Amino acid sequence: MTFFDHFGREPDGRWAAPGRVNLIGEHVDYAQGLCLPFAIAERTVVEVAARPDDRVRVRSRAEADGFDGSLGDIGPGSPGGWAGYAAGVLWALREAGHRVGGVDLLVADTVPLGAGLSSSAALECATALAVDTLYGLGLDRRDLAAACVRAENDVVGARTGGMDQAASLLATAGHALLLDTRDGSTRQVPFAPADDGLCLLVIDTRVRHRLADGRYGERRAAVEKSAATLGLASLREATLRELEALDGDLLRRARHIVTEIQRVREVVALLDDGRLRDVGPLLDASHQSLALDFEVSCLELDLACQAARGAGALGARMTGGGFGGSAIALAPTDRVDEVTTAVREAFAAGGHEDPEVRAAEPSEGAHPLPVL
Ligand code: ADP
Ligand code: MG
């Protein structure tokens, strides 16, 4: 169904925002850590028209239902379901003091949902850019990203950090975005695998996670408790030696955070040096840490990484929140077919659903599209 079919009029414009893949720096964005995501070519597209009243209508080609209400109906927990990601952005912008009116909004195209590629942030960011333009807010992209985070945290109720939204709004083609979540500062780091005869593969295990189901929140709580136990505001400045005061689960969760932040620094140094080929072992170490210390991997993610490495990938790790979703593998371009086949065969042999393997190209952040 077209925008016209839904709303009986044409949209004022179309806006696209990409999904993201995190190269490294996983689960550290709520510990004031460093992460290194890049925007992918897959994009969510929203078609939006401003309204003269405060009515808000939201529909998606990817999901049933939607939302039909007024601005005043939007708030924490409302609307429930997927429409909260889009409507929540309107609420967050208004909460930040901006004059925003009603909209008709159709999510016309999408980043694959729940694959660990951040379709949620893509939807929020496309919506934010649309509303910023239609209501002439003239906001900085950092402010838009903050409103998107607020929508996801407060309206949807998923306690995610700010990495996904920063990547979707601030990333540039041919770069990864070094995001320092302590102060929100960013830096573009050269990252163009094809130039080095490499390819970054994204392996969607097709195991669908639900971030809102509590396990993400448990990890986040453990990380915050570790910091509090050590008397620190966050684990950002903690050293491995300081962690000796912790034990059990808290120690292991905290150890992941501290070592992962260090791995990000090492990967950035290699990329700045033009040594992408050498990051493989750091990707492998990140996966080990996420699987054993942080315990957010799963059988299928482990299998994907192991099969990819066995077929010649230089390194592989789960990416995103975990418990399913996608893994990444850095492969020489001439080994892409072998790696892809090996992963699919391993899944078939294990009785798992056929994974989708695609190449990820570091792409530009959110942008307007010409109206059809
Ligand atoms: P991810 O962000 O990794 O894709 P999440 O669980 O954070 O996974 O977000 C996925 C959810 O975002 C979907 O279940 C749905 O509620 C919402 N969503 C994302 N894209 C769309 C879309 N195009 N249409 C409707 N809902 C969407
Ligand atoms: Mg998400």
List its traits:
single chain; 372 residues; alpha+beta; Ribosomal Protein S5, domain 2; six-stranded mixed β-sheet; four-stranded antiparallel β-sheet; 10 helices; binds adenosine-5'-diphosphate; binds magnesium ion
Brief rundown of the structure:
The protein has 372 residues and is of the alpha+beta class. It is 37% helix and 22% strand.
Give me the CATH architecture of the domain at 3-188, please: 2-Layer Sandwich
- Might you state the CATH topology name of the domain at 3-188? Ribosomal Protein S5, domain 2
Flag low-confidence runs.
Answer: none
Number of helices: 10
Name the structural class. alpha+beta
Q: How would a textbook summarize the main sheet? A: 6 strands, mixed
How many E strands? 13
**Could you tell me the mean pLDDT?**
96
Shape label: globular
Cα-based radius of gyration, to the nearest Å: 20 Å
Q: Assess the beta-strand content as a share of residues.
A: 15-25%
